Amino acid sequence: SVALAARTRLYKAERPLDVSRELVRTEDYVAQEFDVSVSVGEAVTVEKVVALFGSRDRAIHEPGYEARNHVKRSGDFADLLVTHILAWDHLWQRFGIEVETGNGDVQCTLNLHVFHLLQTVSPNSVDLDVGVPARGLHGEAYRGHIFWDEVFIFPYLTLHMPRLTRGLLQYRFRRLPKARWHAADAGFRGALFPWQSGSNGEEETQEWHLNPLSGEWSRDNSHLQRHVDIAVAYSVWRYYSATGDDEFMENQGAEMLLEVAGFLASLCVYNRTEDRYEILGVMGPDEYHDGYPDAPEPGVNNNAYTNVMAVWCLMRALSVFEVLPSRRRLELRERLGIGRDDL
Q1: What is the pLDDT of residues 292-335, one digit of tens each?
Q2: How far is CA 50 from the centre of its chain?
């Protein structure tokens, strides 16, 4: 549940006005009407402050109660503006990137992208159960789902605020059980993270896609993009490489990386004729190639990106065992069923 509380004040010549209020309720909105006497050329300022809380917020009693109390205690617009500017100043000092090109457009464009990124994930995200939505929080495209975009964003965040990356990686770790179910349902071992992830980590990718220009429906095979699994493993290893966070790797990271490796190992098929392993029936990052003409089943074989990164992931899984304490290494091998043949 989500609760909003609003506080509205009116000012004339910077002095608060004591005005009569009338509540207006319709099917579409709730509002207040004010009666104010003003003279020609006289300015009246309306200041509205809103507090928003949700039932998933931490350290709260109840959303409505918290919203009402916070909006009561909130400062006026000038106070809020000062704290707002200070918060962004601190973000720019930490995350800002300056380029010396002599071209102001380049710097402006870079600032815009960093601004959008920090609107979507910021220090406020550290303690929330959130990932990195593909279109940020700026619109309804992709329905707010989590794809693999974090693989491009985490290296930047890690260099400036590693605790933010760690907090966002928790989104994946909390949904590891669902990823295991997903892999098992598809006939594989390990964990298969969904191409489109939502609140509980189930696969949210649509099976049919509407072409808005032609009005025709066609099959959507994008759930076959197995490189989302690789992106999770890659993000875990890059974070660990940058921070040396042994506690994270021991308790969360290693388990995710090993389960992804287990999935990829079971995804591989041995080709006796070629004397090599292959990965069949997937969609690579090039989403315009999702199958072969007239083929009965969707997907392409031996997509270069998927194959190369699968090898990288299997090698990192072996590296993980080298950095874990022997006790934790044994625990994970026993719990995940990793035997000598697997290694």
Answers
A1: 999 999 999 999 999 999 999 999 999 999 999 999 999 999 99
A2: 26
Q: Is 287 a catalytic residue?
A: yes
Residue labelled with tokens 């609760």:
3
| 96 within 8 A of 113, measured Cβ to Cβ | no
Contact between 334 and 326 (Cβ < 8 Å): no
Q: Which two tokens stand for residue 153?
A: 């964003």
Q: Which of 305, 304, 165 is nearest to 228 (CA)?
A: 305
The whole model's pTM is what?
A: 0.90
How far is it, in rounded angstroms, from Cα 143 to Cα 26? 28
Q: Taking a C-beta distance cutoff of 8 angstroms, is the pair 54, 2 a contact?
A: yes
Structure tokens that stand for 128 in this block: 């929330």
Marked catalytic residue, from 287, 297, 322, 334: 287
Residue 150: half-sphere exposure toward Cβ, Cα within 13 Å? 34
In angstroms, the CA 82 to CA 231 distance is 39
d(CA 326, CA 126): 30
Give the whole-angstrom CA distance, residue 333 versus residue 343.
Answer: 10
For the segment 264-275, what is each residue's pLDDT rounded down to a tens digit?
999 999 999 999
